[in-house]
From TrEMBL:
Annotated region (Phosphopantothenate--cysteine ligase), positions in chain: 11-224
Segment of the intact protein contained: 179 to 402 of 407
Record-given protein name: Coenzyme A biosynthesis bifunctional protein CoaBC
Positions of CTP binding: D98, K108, P125, D126, I127, L128, F145, K159, K163
E.C. code: 4.1.1.36, 6.3.2.5
Source species: Pseudoroseicyclus tamaricis
Domain of life: Bacteria
Length: 224
């Protein structure tokens, strides 16, 4: 039995990396652990939300109390997100691979002396931008992340406009911050009203603060 300020709300969360096959045994991936996404799923569930958690192959296990949909590729992640709609809100925390291999081989590529395989890359769909596109199934609040290494608020504000989402949680992943792969995060929340710096805190605290802000916004009926 669910109780809490998000009771009765359906929230879609994407998390983890995606794996894009080269052939049946090889793939392109990235170093996302899925830690921030898992913390967000847990925080939403703790506030009573009905969470659909669409996850790529992450290191961190999915949280308890959510509906888990496991995917590998960006294309599968997009399809799973679309199948999960309608939702009151969507939070895109996945580190989706920007490219996939066009015409991935159905058979393991063979090594041949002196001959290198030529991989043709194709652009993956932008799931955050797709979920943000106007339409009857658009979640009321769509939230994305932006990992930047410089001029964080400025770049993230531009990203918010470009993607069409409502909020962006921007973080500074410069070398030396220890944020990438670490347990802490320092974020700036970008909304239609401007930029708000949050103090450095754990990823679990970021998740709880975001979940409670989301609950407030859905309560107010705000979309910015
Ligand atoms: O464009 P960039 O990758 O910096 O944007 C990051 C945000 O967009 C994150 O919220 C991420 O989950 C989302 N994203 C996505 N699909 C992609 C690329 C990024 O949903 N193909």
């Amino acid at each position: 039995l669910k109780i809490g300020p998000l009771k009765g709300r359906h929230v879609l969360v994407t998390s983890g990396p995606t794996h894009e096959p080269i052939d049946p045994v090889r793939y392109i991936a990235n170093r996302s652990s899925g830690a921030q996404g898992a913390a967000i799923g847990a925080a939403l569930a703790a506030l009573g939300a009905d969470v659909t958690f669409v996850t790529g192959p992450a290191e961190v296990p999915p949280p308890l109390g959510v509906r888990v949909v496991r995917v590998d590729t960006a294309a599968e992640m997009l399809a799973a997100c679309e199948a999960a709609l309608p939702a009151d809100a969507a939070i895109c925390a996945a580190a989706v691979a920007d490219w996939r291999v066009e015409g991935a081989s159905g058979q393991k590529l063979k090594k041949a002396p002196g001959a290198l395989p030529q991989l043709q890359l194709a652009e993956n769909p932008d799931i955050l931008a797709r979920l943000s596109a106007p339409g009857p199934r658009r979640p009321r609040l769509v939230i994305g992340f932006a990992a930047e290494t410089e001029r964080v608020a400025e770049h993230a504000t531009a990203k918010r406009e470009r993607k069409g989402c409502d909020w962006i949680l921007a973080n500074d992943v410069s070398p030396g911050t220890g944020i990438m792969g670490g347990t802490e995060n320092a974020v700036t929340l970008i909304t239609g009203a401007g930029a708000e710096d949050w103090p450095r805190m754990t990823k679990a605290e970021v998740a709880r603060k975001l979940a409670s802000r989301l609950a407030e916004a859905l309560e107010e009926g705000a979309d910015a």
